[in-house]
């Protein structure tokens, strides 16, 4: 049996995260745990402190809070997703309480087999049947009139800002010019988005704190994106679920993986320039 309690860390219902203010309402799911990989863990004195830790990160959407404590406090696990994205991982547990950000999805508003996805920035929701169909059908918003260029070494990331407040569902990079290479001697074989393996990509998109946003759940590794390779004319990243709440003017960065990690970049070369588009909810 699921018991819902509200943990309010502000008076307003929808989530708001910025440098000046953080607020949200969390729903407590009694004796429950979302059994996915955690993004961080802390020892805290109570559930309020656990929720506050979550609100400090734009990538946190729910927490697991250990019922029992030791001399350092209760274990607080910050999670980069919610129970709507991983319903099969939402399990009963006598050892945990699970807290998720309040959403209309709690009341199952979608019909005809559609899946409810919270839009936390607006306190709304979307009903999805096919995530890829949303990306193909919705209008893309170009974030800048100028191309955005990123290099392969010396912290030469490209940056752009979001033109309006809302939620980001996906992001698209459209190749304009240039190349990047992870081996100077292989400059003639430099690519748009990767290194030496045609099917592996090393172009990452982070927020202003260099936390990787695209692709989601990436731990700074090279990755594969179905239907794309290191010389594709564009990259369309998978849909974010839940979507990412953003503020007007919020900064994002495009990085070459080795440059972000400051590792093995001494023999890198080149710059890739791209137009950047976002799909907003």
UniProtKB/TrEMBL annotation:
This is Uncharacterized protein.
């Amino acid at each position: 049996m699921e018991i819902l309690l509200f943990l309010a860390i502000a008076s307003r219902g929808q989530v708001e995260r910025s440098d000046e203010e953080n607020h949200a309402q969390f729903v407590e799911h009694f004796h429950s745990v979302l059994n996915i990989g955690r993004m961080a863990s802390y020892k805290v004195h109570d559930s309020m402190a656990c929720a506050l830790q979550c609100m400090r990160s734009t990538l946190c959407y729910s927490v697991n809070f250990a019922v029992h404590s030791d001399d350092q406090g209760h274990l607080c696990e910050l999670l980069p997703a919610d129970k709507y994205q991983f319903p099969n991982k939402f399990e009963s547990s006598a050892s945990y309480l699970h807290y998720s950000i309040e959403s209309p999805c709690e009341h199952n508003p979608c019909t005809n087999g559609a899946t409810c996805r919270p839009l936390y920035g607006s306190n709304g929701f979307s009903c999805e049947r096919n995530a890829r169909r949303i990306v193909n059908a919705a209008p893309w918003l170009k974030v800048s009139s100028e191309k955005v260029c990123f290099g392969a070494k010396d912290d030469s990331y490209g940056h752009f800002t979001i033109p309006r407040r809302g939620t980001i569902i996906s992001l698209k990079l459209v190749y304009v010019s240039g190349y990047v290479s992870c081996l100077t001697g292989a400059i003639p074989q430099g690519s748009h988005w990767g290194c030496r393996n045609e099917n592996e990509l090393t172009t990452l998109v982070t927020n202003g704190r260099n936390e990787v946003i695209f692709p989601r759940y990436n731990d700074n590794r090279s990755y594969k994106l179905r239907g794309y390779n290191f010389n594709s004319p564009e990259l369309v990243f998978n849909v974010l679920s839940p979507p990412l709440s953003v503020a007007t003017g919020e900064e994002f960065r495009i990085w070459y993986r080795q440059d972000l990690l400051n590792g093995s970049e001494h023999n890198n070369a080149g710059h890739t320039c791209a137009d950047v588009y976002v799909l907003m909810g």
